[in-house]
């Protein structure tokens, strides 16, 4: 059969590599565009949820591994390091969208500083709480067999085979309420005092790309030095999210009533500590940094200028 002129032209176009409609690519682009959230608050809340999820997944997984293996597959330091890696990973993941607070106490401090609008406080905190809850559930599923083998199928808060501390924090038996409260206040104060200066342009700011890694090192330092008393929660969402999960997963109300209803300490104390750390930074550091609009003169220059004025006054008096 002889090709028609139209057929020859069509074949010629194909041979010359003319663009062919890419329906699948267009469909993918349209789908991704439809999934993109236009509401800024929703985007930020999703980022906080995912970031806190990543943080808790690293940390609680390490706690589960160390606890259920009776420290044959890791040690206490492993948990500290895992939480720090979780902080770094979550910050790199979400910093460009929400600022990567990952902590209601941090969000509260930024609201107090005026860097975040107050109407974002509750949505951010709820998102962080939900992310921590979901992460705890996933850790439970991943380590379900190990947890049951370790505990003998009995999920408890007390005793040598307790497993509640895999998820939430609990005080040492010798610790008083006042000491545990102070512990959390000091730990969170140190956190805010150390991180607020990282982006301060008037001081010695850290490179933006390195801030997540530096914050992770700060968290590691706090957890290595201030977690012996009650686990260094320094984050209400990190503690309440997993605690709510254990309440619903079989540990029961004991996770809230144990140690004389101690659960409120890692909720309230970190918020107070974060505000104290922020206040200390403002009063002792921020207020005394040079104003970029009025550069502070070198002290030697000032002394030289004063000496010149004295010489000028002397000759004026002699004349």
From TrEMBL:
It is found in: Membrane. The keyword Transmembrane applies. It catalyses: glycerol(in) = glycerol(out); urea(in) = urea(out); H2O(in) = H2O(out). Keywords: Membrane, Transmembrane, Transmembrane helix, Transport. CDD domains: MIP. Its main location: membrane. It is a multi-pass membrane protein. InterPro entries: Aquaporin-like (IPR023271), MIP (IPR000425), MIP/Aquaporin (IPR050363), MIP_CS (IPR022357). It comes from the Eukaryota. The chain crosses the membrane at residues 45-64, 76-94, 121-143, 181-198, 210-234, 261-281. It holds the Pfam family MIP. GO terms for cellular component: basolateral plasma membrane. One of its GO terms (molecular function) is urea transmembrane transporter activity. Belongs to the MIP/aquaporin (TC 1.A.8) family. This is Aquaporin 10a.
């Amino acid at each position: 059969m002889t090709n028609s002129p139209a057929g020859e032209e069509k074949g010629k176009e194909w041979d010359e590599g003319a663009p062919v409609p890419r329906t699948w690519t267009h469909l993918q682009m349209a789908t991704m565009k439809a999934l993109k959230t236009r509401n800024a608050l929703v985007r930020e809340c999703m980022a906080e949820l995912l970031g806190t999820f990543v943080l808790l997944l690293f940390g609680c997984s390490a706690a589960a591994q160390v606890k259920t293996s009776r420290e044959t597959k890791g040690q206490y330091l492993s948990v500290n390091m895992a939480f720090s890696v979780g902080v770094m990973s979550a910050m790199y993941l979400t910093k460009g969208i929400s600022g990567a607070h990952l902590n209601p106490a941090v969000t509260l401090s930024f609201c107090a500083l005026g860097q975040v609008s107050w109407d974002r406080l509750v949505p951010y905190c709820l998102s962080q709480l939900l992310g921590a809850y979901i992460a705890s559930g996933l850790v439970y599923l991943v380590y379900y067999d190990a947890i049951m083998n370790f505990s003998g199928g009995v999920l408890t808060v007390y005793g040598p085979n307790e497993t509640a501390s895999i998820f939430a924090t609990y005080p040492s038996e010798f610790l008083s309420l006042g000491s545990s409260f102070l512990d959390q206040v000091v730990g969170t104060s140190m956190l805010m005092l150390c991180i607020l200066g990282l982006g301060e342009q008037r001081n010695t700011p850290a490179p933006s790309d390195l801030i997540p890694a530096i914050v992770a090192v700060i968290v590691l330092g706090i957890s290595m030095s201030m977690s012996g008393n009650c686990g260094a929660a320094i984050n209400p969402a990190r503690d309440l999210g997993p605690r709510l999960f254990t309440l619903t997963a079989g540990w029961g109300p004991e996770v809230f009533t144990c140690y004389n209803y101690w659960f409120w300490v890692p909720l309230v104390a970190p918020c107070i500590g974060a505000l104290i750390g922020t206040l200390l930074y403002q009063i002792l550091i921020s207020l005394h940094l040079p104003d970029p609009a009025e550069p502070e003169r070198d002290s030697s220059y000032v002394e030289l200028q004063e000496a010149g004025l004295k010489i000028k006054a002397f000759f004026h008096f002699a004349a």
